[in-house]
Amino acid sequence: MSQNYILELKDIAKVYDNGVVANKGISIGFREGEIHAIVGENGAGKSTLMKIIFGLEKPTSGSIVWNGEEMHFQSPLDSIAAGIGMVHQHFMLIPSFTVLQNIVLGDEPTKFSFVQKKESRKKASELAKQYNFDLSMDEPVKNLSVGMKQKVEILKLLYKGAKVLILDEPTAVLTPQETEQLFAELKKFKESGHTIIFISHKLNEVKEISDRISVIRKGQLISTHNTEDVRLEEISELMIGRKVEYLYDDIKSEHTSRKEAVKIEHVTYKSNGIPLLNDVSLTLKTGQITGVVGVEGNGQSELVEVLFGYKKPESGSVLVNGKNIIGKKIKDIREEAKVSYIPEDRMHQGIAATASIKENMISSFYDAEQFNHKFYMNQKAINTVSDELIEEFQVVCQSGETEIGSLSGGNIQKVVVAREYYADPDFLIAEQPTRGVDVGSASFIHTKLIELRNRNKAILLLSADLGEALAVSDHLLVMYEGEIVAYFTDMKALTEQELGLYMLGIKKMDKQEIWRKMHEEA
Q1: Which of these, 10, 390, 396, 425, could form a disulfide with 340 (CB 3.0-4.6 Å)?
Q2: Residue 466 to residues 147, 205, 331, 486: CA-CA distances in angstroms?
Q3: Quick one: which of 338, 341, 342 has its CA closest to 286?
Q4: d(Cα 361, Cα 423) in Å, to the nearest integer?
């Protein structure tokens, strides 16, 4: 490999104790002062490779060469000390600490065992100024927006002297405006000699920001390209072997009339006296996918938790097929109101990680008569349904007996979607159903949601991927500070940039206009 590489991976292989091969002989070089994108389907081996670089995993064979010297990272502390840092998709910040405390944590300058606060503040402030990070050092992190928290994470690594930054899905929860700002900052890092390893499923963003792209498929490096020399369609085909676009008009059936399925009226929910949902009213109809977008923390999560019985609002009602579900148990909401839920956090809310795939497949309705004969579980029926769903939803696994926690994120998500789909709900809440999922799996999940829509079900789709929301939804609303501030019925006339203005609170629709649009016959 060229001596221009600041970081080289040579024939990296990773085989786990259970025989799963995550990486096979991968060799990639990263140049100083470049943005290098890594793309591939879920389960392709990207995450494992990044964990090896960052010291979270040890390779079975192969070597890491840093500045011409072979390294053996035993932990992230070793990689950080060398100059390699990683910003995870889920931030590693202490909410109650200030920006400065988070930045210097574990690396505070000391003199005679006393922390040199002035010196650390000066260093952090100078770095923030150098890279145009508009951050107040004394602000508690819990008060920051998602975009600002990400800046703190990046500044933490720069403070510790990182020359290589690994960014895992860095735009997953950002508005278009925040993404644009992040890209301007990444280009500035590049100009100052930093190397950015950019992991993303958003191929249009990869094309926009990267200098080179490496494609990984089934644990192997397929190819590396200069970004300017390869088209989006080619990248997609290299990743999954076929072209994928979010175009679903041809599979959406037309409905002559839509009936009211869910009616949310004047719902207010408060936490510590602060209204996180403020007099929210919304009508959802059968045969319709209603999308919900907004910057994280503007009431979307609370809306879901009220709808599925996790939280009880101070006031208001939620009628599903004419029955008020406020105060009902989750089991009753599932069985009596026929509501299903694909949660945002698949690992903590969606599955039991140490249980088998088949156990997870029936976990929401394990006591149904076909599976539960009071004194014993009907394993034959469980196996039959599990095997059918594994095949229908294209879950890549050894068998239904496989521990679900050993699967890739995309395949775990398919199990969750399969279970909620099989329940045949009248109302489905799909919260970030394709977050962290490759384009092929995302397209498959979209198709399944549309199948339910075509069967006259009501679907609420909450998504941080604006492209997904625009492509899949029939109607779309924006939440800001616990309120619905916009409602759209024409997806073709709507742009991500315009949505971003409403998401940031720069624009708002009149409440009467929102109500009128909401009740127009689709």
Answers
A1: 425
A2: 16, 13, 32, 15
A3: 338
A4: 10
How many Cβ atoms are within 10 Å of 223's Cβ, its own excluded? 13
Residues 78/109, Cβ–Cβ less than 8 Å = no
Determine the 3-state secondary structure of 113 from DSSP.
coil
* Dist CA 35 CA 107 (whole Å): 27
**Alpha carbons 399 and 267: distance in angstroms, whole number:** 44
Task: Calculate the CA 213 to chain-centre distance.
Answer: 21
Q: Find the farthest-apart pair of alpha carbons in the chain and give their distance in angstroms, rounded.
A: 78
Q: How confident is the model over 364-410, as pLDDT tens digits?
A: 888 888 888 778 888 999 999 999 999 999 898 889 999 998 887 78
Beta strands across the sheet bearing 458-462 = 339-342, 427-431, 458-462, 288-293, 475-480, 483-488
Q: Which long-range contacts (CB under 8 A, 24 or more apart) does 465-469 make?
A: 465/172, 465/202, 465/434, 465/435, 466/176, 466/293, 466/496, 466/499, 466/500, 467/202, 467/204, 467/246, 467/496, 468/246, 468/434, 468/442, 469/291, 469/292, 469/293
Side chain identity, residue 193 = G
Residue 439, token pair as written in the block: 């384009």
- Residue 273: strand, helix, or coil: coil
Q: Is the pTM of this model over 0.70?
A: no
Segment 148-151 long-range contacts (CB within 8 Å, at least 24 positions apart):
149/91, 149/93, 150/87, 150/91, 150/174, 150/182, 151/185
